Amino acid sequence: MPFVLLYLVVEIVAVVALGSWIGALPTLLVLLAGSVLGLWLARREGLRAAQALAEAARNRRVATSETTDGMLVAVGGLLLFVPGLVTDVLGLLLVLPPTRALVRRRLVASTERRHPGLRTARIRSEGQVIDAEVVDVRPGAGTEPPRRPGGPMVIEGTVVDER
Fold this sequence. Notes:
This protein is mainly α and about 160 residues long. Helix content is about 65%, strand content about 0%. The longest helix has about 35 residues.
């Protein structure tokens, strides 16, 4: 509830400030033009993000930036759909490619800083991807890997060539 009240106060203050600066009719035109332009941009950038995601899937590469861009465009479109001057500006910032790239980089860096064990997939080469499971082999960890009697640790698995 306090968030809704804060949102309403911020939006009202922004619209009143803009209205007192440029007038009532130009303020309404700015709100209308911002929404129309923003929704058009959100549609266009959303289609681009979907095409980039499909291209990454066709090329069998990890689509982290494409997925993040799609999410940011969706959030930007939602903000443009919500009435208000401040939400329109925030939505436009998320929909425009240069500011979206900046937000994406900061979002990824912030997530990696908060969750050091979690790293985003940044595969830069066209190397082979191996699906594997990590087993904790410390004493008392519960699961010991298979071993040959008197020999080295054995790694069991199947190699599948999907070319």
